[in-house]
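Box 3.1 A note on notation
Throughout this textbook, protein chains are presented in two layers. The first layer is the amino acid sequence; the second is a token string describing backbone geometry. Keep the layers aligned when reading.
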Amino acid sequence: MEDGRVRTLRVAPEGSTAENHAFDITPARLITGLITERGVTEASQAALAAIYPEKVEGQP
């Protein structure tokens, strides 16, 4: 965080046995794209909402 705070967040579902000891901690401002199971997309909220519409709040 820019203000020096450290935050912990879960990147896998509760109870998952997934591990990634080489997790990338690149600052968000340097990330321009994301590789997902649904393809490559721009690293923006709008682009992610377009490929994961079921995850957008308020959508049926």
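The beta strands are 33-36, 39-42. The chain has a mean pLDDT of 84.
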